[in-house]
Amino acid sequence: MSAAAERLALGLADLDRRELRRTRRVLDSPQGARVRLDGRTLVNFSSNDYLGLAADARLREAAIRAIDQYGTGAGASALVSGHLRVHHEAEERFAEFAGLPRALLFGNGYLANLGILAALGDRDAHVFSDALNHACLIDGARLSRAQVTVYPHRDLGALAEALAASKASVRIVATDAVFSMDGDVAPVPQLVELCERYDAWLVLDDAHGIGVLGATGRGTLEHFGARSSRIVYMATLGKALGGYGAFVAGDSRLVEWLVQRARTYIYSTALPPMAAAVAMRALEVVSEDPSPLRNLRARIGELRAALERIGFRGDITPTAIQPVILGTAPRALEASTRLAAQGFLVPAIRPPTVPDGTSRLRISLCAAHDASDIAALVSALAGDLAP
Question: What domains lie within the chain, and their CATH numbers?
Answer without folding.
Answer: 22-45+290-385 (3.90.1150.10), 58-288 (3.40.640.10)
